[in-house]
Amino acid sequence: MAKKSIDINKDVIEQCLNGDRQAQFRLYSLYADNMLNVAYRMTNSREEAEDILQESFIDAFTRLNTFRFEASFGSWLKRIVVNKTINRYRMKKLKLTFIESYDFMHLPDEDTGQDYPDNLTVDKVKNAMNTLPEGARIVFNLFLFEGYQHAQIAETLNISVSTSKTQFRYAKLKIREYLKEDIV
Asked: What mean pLDDT, rounded, does the chain reach?
């Protein structure tokens, strides 16, 4: 039997389960901004991210009775947002664009340990991420921000593990190059 964790929002969640609309609004208010950021990082579109956010909360409130407090509500909701985002790509039958024409044999395997300048900001990193092709951007986000392992990414996106690893290395390299150019 899985050990249940204590969720700091347990009272609000239980009120939601009893149909309390104000509690639903409180829960939405607590998580909406963070979940919008998750969807936006993956889609690079404010409108798409907002749609995904709304669909995710509708899903969450509809399935709230399945939430078992085995993880935090935020983790559970984030999983819904990530899955909705990936499913949106599938529903639109969009083929994720993965870089194939780049010389991957010369990508560094590890971080070179280079220091970044002091004036590096979150906005500069976001701008750099937005320059990535969608496939590399999604792999980068799933690995770095959502904590997926490459095997999970490969299964979720229907790609090979080596493609996931290569796309992640490519994304890191391109972001590093962008930041160096932007800061110089």
From this structure: 82
The pLDDT of residue 76 is 93
* Cβ pair 61, 77 in contact under 8 A: no
What range does the domain containing 111 cover?
104-183
In the chain, % of residues over pLDDT 70 = 78
Name the domain count of the chain: 2
Spatial separation of the C-alpha atoms in residues 148 and 156, rounded to whole Å:
10
List the CATH number of the domain containing 112. 1.10.10.10
Q: Which residue has the higher pLDDT, 8 or 153?
A: 153
The last residue of a domain, from among 91, 113, 138:
91
Q: What count of other Cβ atoms lies within 10 Å of the Cβ of residue 52?
A: 26
Tens digit of each residue's pLDDT (9 = 90 or more) over 94-132: 455 555 544 444 444 445 445 555 566 777 878 888 888
